[in-house]
Each structure stands twice: as structure tokens, then as C-alpha cells.
Design brief:
Blueprint (H helix, E strand, L loop, with lengths): L9 H21 L3 H4 L2 E4 L5 E3 H19 L5 E5 L3 E5 L7 E8 L1 H5 L6 E7 L7 E8 L4 E6 L4 E3 L2 E2 L11 E5 L3 H10 L6 E3 L4 H10 L4 E4 L5 H13 L3 E4 L17 E4 L2 H11 L6
Parallel strand pairs: 3-5, 11-12, 11-13
Antiparallel strand pairs: 1-2, 3-4, 5-6, 6-7, 7-8, 8-9, 9-10, 13-15, 14-15
Length: 283
């Protein structure tokens, strides 16, 4: 078992995330079909309309957070797309738990299996403070995780990315509205071989870490809940992840912060996708 750190026991957080996944899987099995999943209830703190399955999946997460506190986890503030900031213990606690119960809600609603649970645990208020990251891809039923300074894992095995291509063979584009994608795709002509749009920023980042994508970029600004976990997984295998022009220490984890995100295996690939990202309207 790992030693207890400033975020508590990383193995305890991993076990809690796995229990969240198991409970969410039951929800997805129960609520099957596009019509059944297209049921809304209000607007979340992140500003988007809330699906009933969003709320139910978030309830699962918060039940496990309650259990973590009962089991002795240090005080923390949860930052979630639906509920906003919720204190577990001291409201001024420095520890942050950054949650996207369903990253890729449109995919989940339309029965497209590429959606994920994303959980990050940070010792402070910035992206640089993230010490634990967890992304579960429900489509492939794969678990990606990382502890700062210890590398990343795919399932229980150390993640060693395969990089079979010198350059950008496959690039993922997120936030894929046509008016934003068209100029980005044009900027990547003759610089990338193929584009993919998975529909989950967390999955795209995890796939960069695994070497499945050579790079990824968002065509609009994203929230910390989308990328906080995935960016650590990328960086723990030696990749690069950036949030606009900000240093990681300047990128805030708060729900109202918005940043374009990009990641790649190396600086040359990163500069290529950043150049394309700048072509998106509004960035």
C-alpha cells in the first residue's frame, strides 16, 4: 500500500473511483435507449442542462465521497459540473476533488459508448496541484489512472505508450461543432493524417497518454472538470498538456474557469495542434 500523502491514501481514492464506476454501470444498464436517457431536470452549476442520468451518476460519486470522509480522508472541497462547490468538512480546505460524472453526456444520451467518469484530486487550487487522476472509458471498459510522480496505469498495469508514428498520424478534436472544426481541420491539412472526434475530452487525453492518439485539441474552451484528471495521465507518461497560454500553476480548477486544452507526445506535435487550435473562432 502506498504511503498516505497530502491528498490521503491514493489507493483509497482509486478504490472509491472503482466503486463509482460499478454503480454508474448499473445506471447505464438500467436506463438504456435514447428516449429513456433524454430526460432533463434543470440546469447544473456548470451552466448546461442536466440530464437525469447526469444527476444520478453524480449522486453515486457523492455517496462515495461521503464514504471517503467517514473512512478518514482529509477535509476537501468537491468541484462538480452539476452541484458546483460542495465542502466535505472545512469549507476552506485546500484539498480539491474535481468531478465530471459523465464526460461526454451527449454521447451517453445518444447511446454512443464513448463517455467517461473523470475524477481528479488536487492538493491546491490549480491544475499543477493535481496529484491523482482517474478516467474510466465506459465504451472500452478501460480504466486510466495516475499518481503524481509514479507514472500512469491502464487497468492495474503501468502505462507505457506505444508511439508507432513519427509525426501526427491521428489527432483528436474535441468540442466539435462544425463552425469551429472547419477552420481547425483546414489548419491541419498536410500536417496530420487523420482526425477523430471521440466526444469526451477525458478519453481523448487518456488516449494521447496511451499513444492511441498522437495529439488532441479542443476547438473551444473547456472546464477544469473535463481535463483535470486526463492531463495528469498524459504528463505522467512524459507527454505535454497545456491550457491556453497559462502555466499549469495559473490554470484554476474552479468551475467557472475556461481554457482551451491541447496535448501531444512531444513539443513539435504540440506546437502543430496549438497552431491549428488558434484557427478556431473565438480562441
Amino acid at each position: 500500500m502506498r504511503a498516505v500523502t497530502t491528498i490521503g491514501d491514493p489507493d483509497g481514492w482509486l478504490a472509491a473511483c472503482r466503486r463509482m464506476v460499478a454503480a454508474q454501470r448499473e445506471i447505464f444498464d438500467e436506463v438504456a435507449g435514447i428516449k429513456a436517457r433524454t430526460e432533463y431536470e434543470g440546469v447544473g452549476e456548470g451552466g448546461d442542462k442536466t440530464l437525469v442520468i447526469d444527476r444520478r451518476c453524480e449522486d453515486v460519486v457523492f455517496a462515495e465521497l461521503d464514504r471517503m470522509r467517514e473512512d478518514g480522508a482529509p477535509d476537501f472541497v468537491a468541484i462538480s459540473e452539476e452541484r458546483g462547490d460542495v465542502a466535505f468538512g472545512e469549507p476552506e480546505a485546500s484539498l480539491r476533488v474535481v468531478i465530471d460524472p459523465i464526460d461526454g453526456s451527449l454521447n451517453a444520451r445518444r447511446m454512443i459508448p464513448a463517455h467517461s467518469l473523470s475524477i481528479a484530486v488536487a492538493s491546491g487550487e490549480s491544475i499543477a496541484d493535481v496529484e491523482f487522476g482517474f478516467v474510466h472509458d465506459f465504451g472500452a471498459d478501460e480504466e486510466f489512472s495516475a499518481v503524481r510522480g509514479e507514472g500512469a496505469r491502464l487497468g492495474g498495469e503501468q502505462l507505457v505508450p506505444e508511439r508507432p508514428w513519427d509525426g501526427l498520424e491521428v489527432v483528436a478534436i474535441e468540442s466539435a461543432s462544425p463552425e469551429r472544426i472547419a477552420p481547425v481541420a483546414a489548419a491541419l491539412q498536410e500536417r496530420a493524417f487523420r482526425l477523430r472526434a471521440p466526444g469526451s475530452i477525458a478519453i481523448s487525453l487518456a488516449y494521447v497518454a496511451a499513444g492511441r492518439f498522437d495529439a488532441m485539441l479542443s476547438a473551444r474552451e473547456c472546464r477544469s472538470v473535463d481535463a483535470a484528471a486526463g492531463q495528469l495521465i498524459v504528463r505522467e507518461v512524459g507527454g505535454l498538456a497545456v491550457f491556453g497560454d497559462l502555466a499549469l500553476e495559473e490554470a484554476d480548477l474552479s468551475l467557472d474557469a475556461r481554457y482551451p486544452v491541447a496535448a501531444a507526445h512531444d513539443s513539435k506535435g504540440l506546437e502543430t495542434v496549438l497552431d491549428a487550435q488558434r484557427a478556431s473562432p473565438g480562441l
